[in-house]
Amino acid sequence: MTMPGTTHVVRVEGLDAAGPFWDGLPHSLFSSANWLRTGEVLGGTPARYTVVQREGRPSSAQVTWQSTGEMWVYNDPVALLRLGAAELAGHVDEAAATEVAELAGAVERAAHELYPARVSVLPSGYRPGLVVGCADDVPLLLDDLEKDGDPTTAVMHVDDGDDRTVALLKERGYIGLTAAGDSVLELDPAWGGLEDYAAAERRRGKRVRHEVDAFRAAGATIRQVDVAALGARHAELHAAHLRRYGHDATEDSSRRLISAIQQWPAGRPLVLEIVQDGTVEGFLVAYEWGDELFASMLGISPEAPYGYFNLIYYEPIRRAVAAGLSRIRFGPGTYQAKRQRGCTVRPLTSYVRVPDRWEATVARLASLLDAAYRREMGASGG
């Protein structure tokens, strides 16, 4: 599509075709070429890349995928609605739970009318597929998202503070559902190490000292290894960890993820391992990008006392402070534990547009789920 003047919108399928347009955009970790390459390999299908060019140079872009129900539930708006309150135990009252179940059932029965869905999202990052260098490009990217007439279109995981994008989506009839939050720990530049982080709040300090001491007393240690050291044991730990949280995970899928990470490393990978009695009992893959550290792939055995807290929080904090980083992003889930360790949870809202006859059903279901997810996060209503 050609716009008046010197603005052009280019649409291609797959990262190989997008490559010539991808350099020069204001990338985050999750829109970097290697991260997207890994997403395409694991997803088994190429993404669609739309690039806005101004004066012959890339200005903004969007990554979208078409789902017919096979995508990760938190990247698929229809699947997320069909899930209902399945992962919200304790956050939905009895009356609302009954209504949620009825509405989610209606969406389930209507799935054949709601798919395929064209979804703007960055894989494994809980970010929208928008890569914005110029705010005026966003309407052009939304036009492209809706261009093919898919029954459902969505922009996932928009930060609540992105007022302009939120307003544009609402004007176009998109319905918001906050189902994930970004847990962010701001690192005080005055901190000299983990001890200063722990001392910043009295209750936190007592917790940190207890959990670190118990971990060490068990004879466990944490070491840094190269990303090339990831192998079968790490795949075993990763798959088992996901299954404990109710996910349908296999060691084969974890091995494929590890292989992709090794082949296309993004940012500056940090790989940490828990070792106890000579055995690897846990690992974390995190990525440094700019002045931030992003926690990502995790696998941990319950054998090491307080291994989870030392591996996912305290060792990354120690290393991030030493490196002079500004913040750590721990991602969604386990919000109470993250708040207790100093994180602020920033709600991420997914916006979905469905056929007119399902709009009222989806709007009501989304409002009930949004309130419950926000309660889980400890966030105020939006």
Structure in words:
- This protein has helices at 15-22, 33-43, 77-83, 94-109, 111-114, 138-146, 163-171, 194-199, 202-217, 232-244, 251-263, 307-322, 335-340, 356-377, and strands spanning 7-13, 48-54, 57-67, 117-120, 130-131, 152-159, 175-186, 220-225, 268-276, 279-289, 292-300, 327-331, 344-353.
- Strand 9 and strand 10 form a beta hairpin.
- The mean pLDDT is 94.
- Strands 1, 2, 3, 4, 5, 6, 7, 8, 9, 10, 11, 12 and 13 form a 13-stranded mixed sheet that branches.
- The relative contact order is 0.15.
- It is an alpha+beta fold.
Strand coverage percent: 25-35%
Structural class: alpha+beta
Largest sheet: 13 strands, mixed
Mean pLDDT: 94
Number of strand elements: 13
> What's the helix-strand series?
EHHEEHHHEEHEHEHHEHHEEEHEHEH
User: What is the helix content?
Assistant: 40-55%
Q: Count the helices. How many?
A: 14
Radius of gyration over all CA atoms, rounded: 21 Å
Q: Unreliable segments (pLDDT under 50, ≥5 consecutive)?
A: none
Distance between the termini: 36 Å
Shape: globular
